[in-house]
Design a protein that fits this description.
The complex is a heterodimer.
Chain A lengths: L1 H37 L17 H8 L1 H35 L2 H12 L6 H12 L4 H9 L12 H25 L3 H9 L4 H29 L3 H7 L6 H10 L4 H30 L1
Helix pairs in contact in A: 2-12, 3-7, 3-9, 5-7, 5-10, 7-9, 7-10, 9-12, 11-12
Chain B lengths: L2 H30 L15 H8 L1 H34 L5 H6 L2 H5 L2 H14 L6 H24 L4 H9 L4 H30 L2 H6 L7 H11 L3 H24 L7
Helix pairs in contact in B: 1-12, 2-12, 3-7, 3-9, 7-9, 8-9, 9-12
The chains are: A mainly alpha, B mainly alpha.
């Protein structure tokens, strides 16, 4: 009787789980497998095209210096944006978690997180409006400073970094805030009553305890920035060629899908390595 | 420095961050009400660009398509995601850990990779590009968010309530619909709002999966920006930001996303 019931339960569980996981299989896991397969083809296997299995795409990725240079350029962009976001975001999370209290904190927290859930493309566009030559920023600086300055940040690496930090800053604020909030105030109080200075409390107590949250935020920023293509395109202009934009080109302009698939897979491998390295910290931050 | 000055400095810093986060959005919104077509100052108020939107068939049809797709995605992702969350919560499913880990790839892998992989696969099996492909892709991206939010709400649910209902003779369906679902309803609503936002704001996956001339709003904006800016784009962008921020304020009220309360 009980075995019968368990089997019934198992059928029910399977029926409830099936739609979600079949969907993920169809739309994520099978496509990723198909992409792995494509990256070893000489041409797309559609219609009556001639194709065979080859390593040429990976050879092209690794042997031409261009792609390695671009990957490195994207990794550097990821590191810059991540470092800046952590440096700017952590103090902000600290103020939210430990200085501001009550309803004001709730409202402030929502205000910080809100832009993150609004359209990222539109926010990048808004920076284009601000940064363009003769735009608002240049007009503002011109009005404040007595001498004549012409600032045109648009279509520069700086513009790309500003736009990306703006896009991803809320991530690190969110994860650091959650980690900081979990630190018991009485712990800080105890350290203080034992004579610890502010610097010591920050370096020996708060930072180590908040580290998993900071690392989680850093990973959440680094991964999408390395794979970004829309931000460099819109804010970088002709300088905005990165690893991501090259992948985009293979799919929408050059139509070399097998090479694009190989480029994507190399990026995926790099990202999975980084996620694996960070996973102990990520697991701790989930508690 | 005293604690009070430090606290004051902290508040000032927070103010600066908020300025950094909101200033460009406000500038963009202001420019959508500026009469000049070339973003020239001085500012002179005009609703001309919003009026122009109304007669721009391309933007209107893309906006309609975006909303319609987001609604379909919301229904599908919320239904499938809630069902999966309940199963993971109620039954001792074998391989539960694996099932939970499988939710991460759609969130953690850059959309550039997921989007191009979907393009390849959907072309291979004959779905091709177009609205059905976009919907399939968006639902997959929204599902993990729904499951995470609903599961978080389920964690506050007392499982003995289900047992009590069952021992009083209620069947599995009745228990689910009359006991479990009413309790987790705020989580389901929040999950649905997240799903809507994921779909409505999604650019990368839509960009690779939609047919040229038959696109969603963000894709249309991207292609128009690359041709050159017009205040019309500011107007439609301002509307989009207002809509998605409104949705997230709602979602925050229904979930615990806004922190403890």
């Amino acid at each position: 009787m009980s075995g019968n019931l368990a089997r019934k339960d198992r059928t029910r569980a399977a029926l409830l789980l099936a739609p979600a996981y079949l969907w993920l299989t169809l739309a994520v896991f099978l496509p990723l497998s198909a992409m792995a397969f494509f990256s070893f083809l000489s041409d797309v296997p559609f219609g009556d095209r001639d194709w065979h299995v080859t390593l040429d795409n990976y050879r092209a990725v690794f042997e031409s210096g261009t792609y390695a240079t671009l990957l490195w350029k994207s990794l550097k962009l990821g590191m810059t944006v991540t470092a800046l976001s952590v440096l700017i975001g952590f103090p902000c999370a600290f103020v939210l978690a430990k200085v501001i209290r009550g309803r004001a904190r709730e409202a402030m927290f929502l205000l910080v997180i809100l832009p993150f859930w609004s359209n990222s493309l539109v926010r990048i566009f808004s920076w284009a409006i601000v940064l363009r030559g003769n735009g608002v920023l240049s007009g503002l600086i011109d009005a404040i400073l007595p001498w004549d300055v012409r600032i045109n940040l648009m279509f520069s690496p700086t513009a790309i970094v500003i736009g990306l930090v703006h896009s991803y800053l809320p991530y690190v604020i969110l994860t650091s805030y959650l980690a900081l909030q979990a630190i018991d105030d009485s712990l800080i109080e105890a350290a203080r009553s034992l004579g610890a200075r502010r610097r010591t409390i920050l370096l020996r107590l708060i930072l180590p305890l908040a580290a998993p949250g900071i690392i989680a935020g850093a990973v959440l920023i680094f991964v999408p920035v390395v794979g970004s293509f829309m931000e460099p395109r819109l804010l970088g202009g002709r300088l905005g060629t990165y690893y991501g934009t090259v992948i985009e080109d293979q799919f929408v302009a050059v139509f070399n899908w097998p090479l694009g698939a190989a480029l994507s897979f190399v990026l995926l491998a790099v990202i999975l390595t980084i996620l694996a390295l960070a996973s102990p910290a990520l697991r701790r931050s989930q508690r | 420095m005293t604690n009070r000055t430090l606290a004051l400095l902290g508040r000032g810093y927070l103010g600066l961050i908020l300025f950094f986060l909101y200033a460009p959005i406000l500038v963009m919104a202001a420019m959508s009400f500026n009469a000049s077509a070339f973003y020239q100052l001085p500012f002179s108020f005009s609703t001309e660009w919003y009026a122009k939107l109304w007669s721009n068939r391309e933007i209107l049809s893309a906006a309609g398509r975006s909303v319609w797709i987001a609604c379909v995605v919301t229904v599908l992702a919320t239904a499938a995601g809630t069902a999966a969350s309940i199963a993971l919560f109620r039954y001792d499913v074998p391989g539960k850990r694996v099932l939970q880990v499988l939710l991460f790839p759609p969130i953690a892998i850059p959309w550039l990779i997921t989007g191009t992989a979907m393009l390849i696969f959907f072309f291979g099996i004959g779905i091709g590009r177009g609205t059905p492909a976009v919907i399939i892709g968006h639902v997959a991206l929204a599902l993990p968010y729904v499951i995470v939010v609903v599961t978080a709400r389920l964690a506050t649910f007392d499982a003995t309530l289900e047992e009590a209902a069952r021992s009083l003779g209620a069947g599995a369906w009745t228990v689910t619909m009359r006991v479990t679902v009413p309790w987790i309803l705020p989580g389901i609503v929040a999950g649905g709002l997240f799903a809507f936002a994921v779909s409505f704001d999604q650019f990368v996956v839509s960009y690779f999966l939609s047919e040229p001339g038959d696109t969603t709003l963000p894709v249309l904006i991207y292609t128009s920006i690359r041709k050159g800016f017009t205040p019309e784009i500011n107007a439609i962008s301002t509307i989009i930001i207002a809509v998605s921020m409104g949705i997230m304020v709602l979602a925050a009220r229904y979930s615990n996303f806004g922190g403890e309360r």
